[in-house]
Amino acid sequence: MKITDIKATPVNIPLEVPFLFGVGTYPGDTKVVIEVMTDEGLVGLGEAPSPDCADVINHRLASILKGMDPFDIQACELACVPDVQVMPNTSDSSAFRAFGGIEIALWDIRGKAWNLPLYMLLGGAVRKQIPFAEYFAFRQRNGTIGGERTADEIAAYCARMKGEHGSTFFEGKLQLGDPALEIRSVKAIRDAIGDDSLLRLDGNMSWSLPTARRILAEIAPYNVRNYEDPAATFEDMAKLRQHSAISFSTHHVDLPKAVRLGVPDFFVTNLAVLGGISKAQRFVAACERMGVGFWTFSGETGIGIAAYLHFIAATQWIREPGQCILHWQRDDVIEEGPFNPKNNMVAVPEGPGLGVTLSPSRLKRCHERFLQQGAYNYFLDPDAPRRHRRMPLA
Fold first, then answer.
1. Nearest-CA neighbor of 138 among 178, 105, 165?
2. How far apart are the C-alpha atoms of 394 and 78, rounded to whole Å?
């Protein structure tokens, strides 16, 4: 079997209404859908995490990989990706992330060729129902949807998600520049979802060290499972650890520093950001050896979510629910999507490879949205046109 062509298509996946976080507004996700075509008619699906990857794939990597064996992932990687050791010297990880998305598609081809779900190629499933945490945040309003801006409103939203979807795992963002609002909201959410529900927070590195210290002290009685990026650096998190027993997580992947400083306790990231499934397996194995936890990011298309489902199914060390904004997504590129968690869980697709079907009409619609809107800018201030949002000095 040979690779005959590769196509990368940037897409915009909108949310039902934008949500707010420390230094921005989140209207949806811009991702890159990857199709790897072969001379035997099999097409592998992958996903890259950022729109710059589309040009890298279409104008560089596609021509390199044409004619290569899609089963020989190591050879494909050697042809596309420089040594990761020297990548910090170049300030350019685009080929690494772009190939990470292609690599997912190469695994999809393997599964389709051998008529096996991806989790079987990764060693078999230790679980078939994959847990995800329901997301919450202060949101803009669109008609009757959204508009949560107070502690009581966001607590009522969480209670509604528990009632409608059986959600008992929750994670979200509570930064509008007012530490007291975050503290009140945590208390209200805990009252609304009950003592037995899991509650995680995400600070997006937006609080100063003194403010983060105050917030962590005030929310300690409310059984917060984890606080993601309560401050800007690992060093600041190490200082916070002296005053708080709440665990910390981050999207910034630096395992040696985490081991050295003793924080964060978890990494939360995307498979393509790690270089693809093979590298993600090795990374999680290293985390397991060093006692650092791992769970998956949110905001992917159904292709990326399917890759998460298979990867988590086959990886025993991933014990925490992944992030999830699936109930907010209003489009997808696959026939089966968006996935719909019920009672915190999404079942692993059982079809060959990723087990999902690309929809040409949905892909076209999501790509046209990208062409009309451009890549989503996550850092604009909704109340100040043409300006980026800034957190107050707190």
1. 178
2. 47
